[in-house]
Design brief:
Helix content: over 70%
Strand order of the largest sheet: 1-2
Oligomer: single chain
Number of strands: 2
Distance between the termini: 29 Å
Number of helices: 15
Length: 382
């Protein structure tokens, strides 16, 4: 047992010495601030507060360990398993779509005993890795039409099951991240415009597929005043909470909307509103700047990987940065009334073990791009 803890301590120390310290510090600081916000958002129910805080801290700790492990593994080895990773991800997502219980019009949660898992969150890391592996085969060559077709089919392996789950928020994150990835890979504009036309044409079909609950959430997300006590309640209360915080906020545990449980999903989708109410404009700016810094540092690693002709690392970083950026914009947009309520968490801040683990797994792949090849664990086939 002593040797085990010694090995773990050595691994952590080596990680601290070799990895991007600023990125790790920004992520841990933001995660810690998220725990404080979750604690306040659930203070009205002591049992819920205790459970939520413990689960979030546990997820952060496990995620940090996984991040260290992945940063030591050569993702070129993992990319060779890309077809199998795509297949497993698609099967898991399809199983969720057909057999998971429906909650609020969605079927995106699996219940494993007392544990709930959201596969569409966990597979974001798989999406980043497998897309990067796919583009890595193309290298620096121009992307041809046949490449686009195969990349599109690759996307559909994730997107179709998620749409079948009626998880529009996650589907939008995958789709937007895919668009950013293609744009940054140098895809010709005519193909990008053609893709946008296809997506727009598919909107009416997707709309018909949505449940009445989801349609109402989208409609009243833009016009909450039409149903202020029903579907429009969350957007209205969210803006009230943000506005009441002013510059410095009402203080931890003093939020009126928070402590009276007036804002549904205050510890998940609307955690940014709680931060605005209790920590004010300053707290909101801290969260936004931390997330911008994280995206910038990942984008910087992408540029460094490109200079080293590490195309797999380049595209992993681009995809992860896009996922974090898209989620951030949609989540904050929901809170301020600029986008409909479609169930998107704020990265590293919102409550949710699946979301936290997904982000740390992604960061493990990103951190690997910074380590010298000889520092990575090499696995050979027997």
């Amino acid at each position: 047992m002593k040797g085990f803890f010694s090995a773990v301590g050595t691994a952590v120390w080596n990680y601290i010495r070799e990895a991007d310290k600023l990125l790790a510090a920004a992520v841990l600081a933001l995660s810690a601030f998220g725990v404080v916000a979750i604690s306040s958002a659930t203070m009205y129910d002591p049992e819920l507060q205790k459970r939520s805080v413990l689960i979030q801290i546990f997820a952060i700790c496990i995620g940090f360990v996984i991040m260290i492990i992945l940063s030591k593994i050569d993702y070129d080895i993992l990319s060779e398993l890309s077809p199998y990773i795509v297949a497993v991800s698609a099967i898991l997502l399809l199983y969720t779509a057909f057999f998971a219980p429906e909650v609020n019009g969605n079927k995106n949660w699996l219940y494993i005993g007392p544990v709930t898992v959201q596969p569409s969150e966990i597979t974001k890391a798989a999406f980043a890795l497998t897309m990067a592996a796919h583009l890595n085969k193309i290298g620096n060559n121009p992307i041809k039409l046949k490449n686009i077709i195969f990349l599109g089919l690759h996307l559909l392996c994730y997107l179709v099951p998620i749409v079948l789950q009626k998880d529009i928020g996650s589907a939008l994150v995958y789709l937007c991240s895919f668009a950013v990835l293609l744009f940054m890979s140098g895809l010709q504009y005519r193909y990008l415009i053609g893709g946008m036309i296809i997506v727009v044409a598919a909107v009416p079909l997707v709309w018909q597929f949505l449940s009445t609950y989801q349609k109402a959430r989208i409609i009243y997300g833009f016009q909450p005043e039409l149903d202020p006590l029903g579907y429009g309640l969350q957007p209205i209360v969210s803006k009230i909470a943000l506005g009441s915080g002013q510059l410095t906020g009402l203080g931890y545990g003093n939020g009126i909307q928070t402590q009276n449980d007036l804002l549904p999903a205050s510890n998940t989708d609307f955690i940014f509103s709680i931060i605005g109410e209790e920590f004010g404009f300053i707290g909101c700016v801290f969260v936004i700047l931390a997330l911008v810094l994280i995206v910038f540092l990942i984008a910087r690693d992408s540029a460094k990987a490109a200079k080293a002709n590490d195309y797999c690392g380049k595209y992993i970083c681009i995809t992860v940065a896009a996922i974090i950026a898209v989620q951030t914009m949609i989540n904050i947009g929901m809170c301020v009334g600029l986008s409909p309520v479609i169930g998107i968490t704020l990265p590293f801040v919102s409550y949710g073990g699946s979301s936290v683990l997904s982000m740390f797994i992604c960061l493990g792949l990103v951190q690997r791009t910074r380590l010298r090849p000889e520092k990575a664990l090499k696995f050979t086939r027997r």
